[in-house]
Amino acid sequence: MQTSTSLAIDVHGLTKRYGGRNVVDAISLQVETGRIVGFLGPNGSGKTTTIRMICGLLTPDAGQGSCLGLDIMADAIAIKREVGYMTQKFGLYEDLSIRENLDFVARLFELPQRQQTVDEALQRLGLTARQEQLAGSLSGGWKQRLALAACLIHQPRLLLLDEPTAGVDPKARRDFWDQIHQLAQQGITVLVSTHYMDEAERCDSLVYIAYGKILAQGTAAAIVADAGARNLEDAFVKLVGQAEDNFA
Ligand SMILES: Nc1ncnc2c1ncn2[C@@H]1O[C@H](COP(=O)(O)OP(=O)(O)OP(=O)(O)O)[C@@H](O)[C@H]1O
């Protein structure tokens, strides 16, 4: 039996309603510390909304739970200090350099020894040589690397990555995933949403949602086997087809 202390995410019945519709509908999710969990589902299925409720950015209409042992309703501010949240749209200042962007984030978190912290962040992500380059002049892959450096600067224990590799070339995506695996080896938990099947295959386990509900979860191999499918993509097509009949 799993004890709650080994769960980085432990939420029950999370529900969010917009315009009279449950866009997230009673989702319960448990993620063990140090795991990489892929969060998949069609556009508009509720992934971003769920991620935002988990990290206290959005208040659920129903449900409860904890993130890193902190209550998602009562401890939202404390959660933000422990979580790195990377969105599809990189929230960086295009007219600031790489170094200035990281320094700005370090100030927001009121980190001590800012210069050293920024130096280390630059080094860890291979950004030192480009530190004076303006963020706006970077390619998608380098912007993504900077965004990851920014969301790691306060040494979070949990990374919530919302389609972090959208629009990034294959080499940069591969580098990014190598980085994610290194972080997980250091004990950081990762919940990552993606539409890419090759990325899903690199996760320890997967959660697949549609219409705001979890349709399948487990390892990629188990999901494929349970769906009687040839591969992950086929499994998801089957699952969403069945869900259309039930929920659409
Ligand atoms: N603030 C809001 N007001 C009204 N509707 C919203 C709001 N935020 C999200 N929605 C709706 O909720 C549904 C779920 O959106 P969400 O962004 O969580 O999906 P998603 O699975 O992350 O999609 P994608 O893969 O396209 O990023 C969508 O129909 C969206 O239009």
What does this structure look like?
The structure is a single chain. This protein has 248 residues and is an alpha/beta fold. The protein has one domain (4-247): P-loop containing nucleotide triphosphate hydrolases (Rossmann fold), CATH 3.40.50.300. The protein contains 9 helices and 10 strands. The chain has helices spanning 47-54, 76-82, 98-108, 114-124, 140-152, 170-185, 197-201, 220-227, 232-247; strands spanning 7-18, 21-32, 36-40, 62-67, 70-71, 83-86, 158-162, 189-193, 205-210, 213-218. The strands form 2 sheets. It has a 6-stranded mixed sheet, with helices on both faces. Strands 2-1-4-5 form a 4-stranded antiparallel sheet. Strand 1 and strand 2 (21-32) form a beta hairpin. Helix 3 runs parallel beside helix 5 (140-152) and helix 8 (220-227) packs across helix 9 (232-247). The longest helix has 16 residues, at 170-185. Bound molecules: adenosine-5'-triphosphate (ATP). Adenosine-5'-triphosphate binds at residues 18, 23, 41, 43-49.
